[in-house]
Here is the input.
Amino acid sequence: MLAILNVTAPFFVLILCGFLAARFRLLPENAVPALNTFVLWFALPCMLFRFAAQTPFGELVKPEVFLAYTTAGLAMLAMVAAVVRIAGGERLADAAFTGLAASWSNWGYMGFALIPAMLGEAALPTLISAGMADLFVVVSAALALASLEGRRGGGLAPALVGIVVRVAKNPMIWAVVLGAGFTGFELALWRPADEVARLLGDSAVPVALFTIGVSLYRPGTRASRNQVLAISALKLVAHPYLVAVVAIYLFHLPTLDVRTLALAAALPVGGSVYLFAERAGANADRIAASILVSTALAFFSFAALCWAFGVTPVG
Here is the structure.
């Protein structure tokens, strides 16, 4: 366990640095949008492009992984949303985004930092396939469910079109597609351009983790402690074990894929869930609190899950 914490602790310290920088006002109020723009539109796409361009196409495309993670994610989303809607009597939008909080990990910013450190770069194709499953299917399903709030008749069609457009605009998807095209056609970037992509890609992990910390500082957020703890427990414990069961018993995936998917599911609530909930007029405070608490608890739960699955740091 100590060996695991020795590897994971520095990543969480970077998150803490961002949180403290925001807490003590060392950054301007508009720092989060600026940092997110850099990470989402420059650093992460360059990192993903370079990886995809250097990976054989057969290793990059993993339909069985995509289906396994999709199945588990949709099951988690549906179960949590149903409980919140039926047992809790909450609005459909709140049920949808609570379900999404329990089923969508912060794999974009945290996954590319923690999982290769634990499992090696061989886990990256599986992580990318899991991320695509989230973006294309699980997130789209939650947004479609939330869009049914107050709609009747043909109101769903425009919402679905909007979801497709939103997913299609995600730069991380296009980075993977473009990189896969380069490896498929055996192309290579002009050397200066490749060096620029390398520099930007190398900055992705530290800046992304620091950005998470900055975004976690939300003074004045109010939410039910029990609800927040329940969502965090579902995300950090129930979701990874559900993913593992689906991957092992339904899709019979190899050990590396199972561990990668389980660790991806064990990451905290994805930060974009808050943005979606806020735009839809749902209970965004509860989502924000769940992101903060699940990120803090993940320092312990992620290491514990690595130990439970017999994962030891590479190298």
About this structure: The two ends are 15 Å apart (CA to CA).
